[in-house]
Amino acid sequence: MTDEPATGEPSMDEPVPVGRTTDLGFAKLMPDIDRDGGWLLTLDGTPQSYVDLADPTHLEFEYTRRIGHLVDALAPAGRPLDVLHLGGGALTLPRYLAATRPGSRQQVVDVDGPLLDLVAEHLPWQGPGADITATVGDARAALAATPARSQDLVIADVFHGSRTPAHLTSVEFLRLAAAALRPGGCYAANLADGPPLAFAKAQAATVRAVFPHVFLVAEAPVLRGRRYGNILLAGSTAPLPTAELTRLLAGDIFPARLTEGEELAALVGRTAPVTDADATDSPPPPDGAFSVG
């Protein structure tokens, strides 16, 4: 399998886009002409990851910035964490953790082996302080095989194209995540939904059925059901650092709102948790929501 080069005649030192057909579609790595070291990964035209090889602490996408804020708030600065990443993309968040918390032990699981190969060849992730292992496999199967109470953080960021697979949305799946976490560990999921937020509400109900401490983060227009967008949903057996996280979210260049407690309960209403018997993929985005050239 070979990469598809860009057209034209760039200089020998100029990074060029590369593309490859992978198990889930056509992946393309495109250099950011406005930022040295910046690369965008798309899959069938849908943005998947943005990586800055020169500065892995730079988080370009809104949802990665929010997960980054959560990572920053979970433990004292610099303390290593054991983290399981379900979904790899270009390994943006593993690189961030390796840079901000050197010595963190990180396992990345992605179902698309050729995509991981493409990223490894063109945007290698190993370096000083990085203990990152990437393997090919199904996220749920990998979670089921994870030793009990071995992880400080489980991050679920799995999209097949632009949709979260159904088998990663149920109470049964969340119970596997809870079993893998140490006491007080955190489960965090990147989801996407739009009006009337039926999927997001059901996922919040599902996380609330497993974890006693839960919050949801989204931009105000998304939370109000006015447009499609990313949603961060997190749960833990211990109180989460919501005050610090609220401060970080408010000061971000992409401000977002954190919802918890009674406000989250009101949002969920009578929505029932999702089980394996009734789980469905997340809804598709509206046409043109994430397309790039």
From TrEMBL:
One of its GO terms (biological process) is polyamine biosynthetic process. Keywords: Polyamine biosynthesis. InterPro entries: SAM-dependent_MTases_sf. Coiled coil: none annotated. Residues 1-20, 274-293 are annotated as: Disordered. This is Spermine synthase. It comes from Kitasatospora aureofaciens (Streptomyces aureofaciens).
